[in-house]
Each structure stands twice: as C-alpha cells, then as structure tokens.
Amino acid sequence: VRYGEFVDAAYGAFLSQPDATPGDLAAPVHVPLHDAAYRVTAPLFATSSVGFPSWLALAAPCAAQRTSLVGYVAVCDSPDEVRRMGRRDIVIALRGTCTVLEWAENFRAGLVPANEAVDAAASPVSASDAKVECGFRNLYKTAGNGSPSLSEMVVTEVRRLLKKYEGEEVSITVTGHSLGAALAVLIADELVGHGDAPKPVTVFSFGGPRVGNCAFAERVEARGARVLRVVNAHDVVPHLPPRPGGRWYADIGRELRLDSRASPYLRPDADAACCHDLEAYIHLVDGFLSSHCPFRANAKRSILRLLKNQGGNVKQLYISKAMDMRVRLDAGGAVDMPGSPLSRLGAPSTVLECVH
C-alpha cells in the first residue's frame, strides 16, 4: 500500500503541473507526498522520441509537449523509520500514461535490443539476446531539448544519494503503475547492471505491461533485481503486449494475483478502467490476505478514495452509505460504523483531489 501511494503522489504531481519542465527554477515541482518519513530529492522527466507535425503542434501545444514530469526520487530521512526498517530506503516512483505522445510510444510494441554497458559478471545473459519494447525504451533513453534522459536522471540522482549515505545500509525500491511499472523494470535492470547499486533493488509493479523477451527477463533476475508484479486478474494491461504461443514477450519476477471481484465494495462487472485503476489496485492490496481467503474485514483504507476515482463501479449500497455519512460529516455529525473502511473518512478535506 505504501509504495502504491508513492505512485499516487507521482500522478498528483503531474496533474497539478502538467506543463512542468526540467530545471524550471521559477516553478519548482511540488510532489504531494503524504509519507512524512520520506523526502523528495529530485523530479524525474521522460521524453518521447516522437513528435507532432509542426502545424499540429501549433494547434495543440500541450498535447505536443515531448518532455513531461513522470515521477520523482525520494529518500527516507526519518531516523525512527530508518531504524525500524534496518536500512535507508531510496524510492523511485513513476506514474502511468498521461500524455498523447506517451500513448503513441505505448503502441510501438516491436522488440529492440536492450543494449547498454553491462557488468558481464552480474549478467550471464548475452546483451544481444535481451530485447525490450521499443516505446518503453524510447521513453527511458531519449533526451529532451537541453535535458537529460530519464535514464541519466535516475542514475545521476541515485549515485549522488549513494555517495551521500555511503557506509549506511541502503536499499533501492522502484515502484510504478502501468507505463510507470514498465519503466520501473528498465530502471532496476540498469541500476543492478552497473554493479555499483546496493542490494536489494526491488520493483513493485502495479498493473504493469510486459517489458521484454525471455532473455531480458532472465537477465533482470540473474542480475539480482527482485520484481513483484501486482496484477488484477481482470486487468488486460498485464497481458500486453500479447505473446502468441509464449513467444516474444515474457513476464518478469513473481506475481501477486488479485481479483477485483473479491472486493465486497466493487461491482462484479467493474469495467476495464476500474480493473486497471491505481486506486483500485491499492484497495485490493489493502484487503488481500491470501489467494484463498476473503477480502480482509479490517482493511484500513477509506473507500472514499475509490469512490472519487471509480464511483460508477462501486456497489450502490456503499455509495448510498458513503453519501449519507458525508452529509453527516458536513453537518458535524459522528461516524458510527467502527471497523468499516467507510468509517475512516476524516474531514471532507481529506478526500484526494487526484483522479486518474
């Protein structure tokens, strides 16, 4: 849940500043990070390798923006939390697709070599065999006008932090949703491939598509990156790009399979957008006990967040209860349903304003 919320903050940062640009001192990037134990150290931008024709770019300048805020790097700087975890955690969080040009890259599903400078000892798989989706690699490796690529930004900031906290136990956690989950795998592969990253390097992938072929999957795992793919059984994105006969693309890491129909709050016929929604994923993780157990009765996350994003996919019973309770909250009344996610509403101002 915590790492899903880091991704949610990446969405919030982009939606509040969709025209943010690297190095803009007049309008520094603000990340709505709710975890007080972590501090944002650097924003991250991704650049599309494709662009609009000049005449179309003039008509729709926002849609034609090639470089967009895609995430951030944060570090745990709470002594109590560092002591509790037994290490200082560096987090790299990445949002999913939000711009027209990112969508264009998503559909470039051909495989291209994942070639880079590699540590041969840490990667027994030949670099020429490992291939990744063209569009994902373009977004990861393309530099903008006067700005470095996402790859360069991540590596530079991680090395700076590792030098700053040299001598400490440090971990790196990369987390993302949808497109961000694909980029998270590419980041983890590069960090462990350089050989100077601390272990562990872990990926939490929420609703991520397939990234590369079998050789790439073997390379990521051989290098020591640990990938947990959080997958909703009814989400189509983790099954893309398709792999007819098991060819071309391969899944990476271990899978945590969730089922939106296991939630007592979501409709069993929830639509495709709900099944892929980040807040729905966090809701399902919060209620997960095991593959053969029902939804956790004492789940802590308020479903008002789910109502905000996917109200049409929440069962009418809970919509009515939430509306009734919201009216009582606005009137200064008390919530009298202890133990229910509906009771954990707080003041009306605590409802997230970020919708994705």
From TrEMBL:
One of its GO terms (molecular function) is phospholipase activity. Residues 91-242 form the Fungal lipase-type domain. Its main location: plastid. It is found in: Plastid, Chloroplast. PANTHER family: OS08G0143600 PROTEIN (PTHR31403:SF65), PHOSPHOLIPASE A1-IBETA2, CHLOROPLASTIC (PTHR31403). Belongs to the AB hydrolase superfamily. Lipase family. This is Fungal lipase-type domain-containing protein.
